[in-house]
């Protein structure tokens, strides 16, 4: 590193150290920002919102939009679980839906997905969770198309007009680092609580990835395809509709996949604002510590997540294939005919026996009792360990660390952050980092933010300690690596809420459980990117090192790890993002950080406070992102 | 074919890429150097190109990669706007055409074959070929009939329902050719259409191309960097270097009378005997005795090699198509060309 460049950074580091060491002599104003300097961001935001709502008549617009959403919700609710609304056709018997989903799996990816998909819906029905699952799905079925349409239009605008893109980009960056709850509060203000609000928050939350994938897809269309379209004499509109959009098909479908997965994650969390369905059930059961029943619901959510993910990914990856010339109509529409046949059989079955139309509560199977017994046995076995671990962690690690973070003068933290920024990207990065961190100090939520930082730091550190060695071990064999990557893929599709079940089961409701949940959630990306980084080292490089006589350990330390480092940094970056999201979600099992305040803001529908807290979380994430990606980019450039 | 019957003509055409090419419009002179342009952050991909292409002519554009061939052809189709100069197509200024006129021109007059095919991945071969017809609003039945006819023409009958990714490179290229022919264009642009093919298929495609060319009288601009290909196909060859045309002439003259050292170097590896016709080598009779059988003027020396070797006359007469003797070949000079100069 250029010594002259690092000089100011070193000075800043020294300053931070000095501020810490000399804390006892510091004036109060350098330890915590004095009260008069704290800016009432929340009041300002509230004023803006009040203006939007009352004076600008935005209420009317949102009413109209939510009216449209509500109409669609009623239709899907009627079809899926028989809510008595137009078109009054439902509920569709569960066997028919299971057969349809199985058929979709078969059409998109063959037998295995068909079995998984149909099996999931049979499980849901047989376990007596049909209504809850359908409540959840009916919202996704409405929210996802809305998000896709919005994302497609916004993405197209951004692609067409550079100005729009320039404005949209930072907004998307912030939007994608805002925790889920920050979206809920404004929606509650405008719409209230309930399924409609749940659907709308889901729509808003899942638009950003669609915008990004649309932009990416439209950009990635090979120029020769566009030119050949133009030479075919297309007008601008024909070119868009018949060439650009179909040629961007894969990216757009991946966007749809992301929309669906985001919708599922949000819909489950929307239980906090009165959204009925699987999420609400899980929330209630977890709060009353009914582990067996929560596990049942958890399995359903996980199965649904995996099925929806596999189906939509299979759709994105499916390539068209030709039919034999001269095929008959029946041969060309074979799948359609089979599906119609299955549906007819399903309706007949439902008419013949009510069990196949809907499973009554008392007919439902339950695994809760054996699960509870098993879990109880297991807990009794590990209690000495978990109790000790809990005691040890709380007394010797968590509390001292938390106090330490709270003890730090804010001026020292600012100097430290600026030093890191300077190290990574000179004065520009130092200023960017300060721009992210200073508003948090100015907002007056410094202490809460430090608790969030402390939880994330502890959790990500443990995640690194677990994820790195595990990743090293997994990457040693190609087969093992593949299996682990598949596992990570699957774990990442789970809605974050699910991760709370095992930790509540093991640790109860306290700080350790929060850290554990965050830690588990944050380990997945580290594991994944460690494996990808190590497996991505070019084989020629390894062979060259082997030829020069490097041993296994040398190979790892001097060749593989340095080359994998940039990828690893992406993993660490994602891990921090995930941790921040999880910390906020985990708030309801008891923390004293920003998350808890956000829950309070949610229950008192305080938009200003909610958004300020959300932005504080987003800014921390963006700052970490800026530092880590900047650093990885430097490393990559240095590596050539 | 009248001398003034030009389908395409370019006057001092420039295409400059870079930071602000629009600022250079009107300021580009023939003597503007690359260094001057580079100093302002620009590269000239096409520099000061003037050429005329006659109706029914086949012009082959050659040059190393990066010499601006593709850019030139894209300018001719106005897929990109030129920085300076003027291009007229059938007497109309391409630069001043409106969007609608341009679309109309492409729908009725132009076809283009792309180096990497540019097929629409989500459409079958048949639908790809029918695409230009669909865009101009032709009804379904007639466009499918036309598209199948075109696919049969390029030897892909039976593959109508295949998707591009299910076809080999050569087959995809033939779909591209069929598509470009579907609207019966008068002007046909081909950008290295055979470069992605292995030699065997390439030869096959060239034969097919010559067959098509014989069947359909079109004005053709064909890019290649394979000299043998150019010699087989071209009426005239244009050699490009750094965006400028070094020489534009018949294959024979390019080889025998290179205008610049660069052209000479470019063609140095070419077997002259395959290019030069007996007629071109002939000296004037000037009252010298003519007896015995004459060689046909339109054949290349290569084709006549055996006859020249076995003939022991020092001067061999050459006759045109009508059998009238037009000149005499110096046998020693012909042998030099065929076998290399005597040591
Ligand atoms: N879109 C573009 N932007 C900037 N430079 C370009 C662009 N297209 C082509 N060029 C430059 O113009 C020159 C000519 O390119 P091209 O016409 O593709 O050459 P050829 O087809 O003869 O290989 C090259 O130096 C290339 O880098
Ligand atoms: Mg080219």
From TrEMBL, chain A:
Name one molecular function that GO assigns to this entry.
Answer: carnitine transmembrane transporter activity
One Pfam family cited in the UniProt record for this chain: BPD_transp_1
Key word Cell membrane present in the record?
yes
Lineage, top-rank taxon, reads Bacteria
Location in the cell reads:
Cell membrane
Q: Where is the ABC transmembrane type-1 domain?
A: 133-312, 449-628
Question: What is the membrane topology here?
Answer: Multi-pass membrane protein
- Mention any one GO cellular component term assigned to this protein in its UniProt record: ATP-binding cassette (ABC) transporter complex
Q: Which family does it belong to?
A: Belongs to the binding-protein-dependent transport system permease family.
Q: What name does the UniProt record give this protein?
A: ABC transporter permease subunit
TrEMBL record, chain B:
GO MF annotations, alphabetized: ATP binding; ATP hydrolysis activity
TM segment ranges: none
Alphabetical keyword list: ATP-binding, Nucleotide-binding, Transport
Q: Which InterPro entries match?
A: AAA+_ATPase, ABC_osmolyte_uptake_ATP-bind, ABC_transporter-like_ATP-bd, ABC_transporter-like_CS, P-loop_NTPase
Taken from the record, one Pfam family name reads ABC_tran
Q: Which biological process, per GO, is one annotated for this protein?
A: quaternary ammonium group transport
Pinpoint the ABC transporter domain residues.
28-267
Keyword RNA-binding part of the UniProt annotation: no
Protein's UniProt name: ATP-binding cassette domain-containing protein
Q: Which organism is it from?
A: Gemmobacter lutimaris
Native organism taxonomy: Bacteria, Pseudomonadati, Pseudomonadota, Alphaproteobacteria, Rhodobacterales
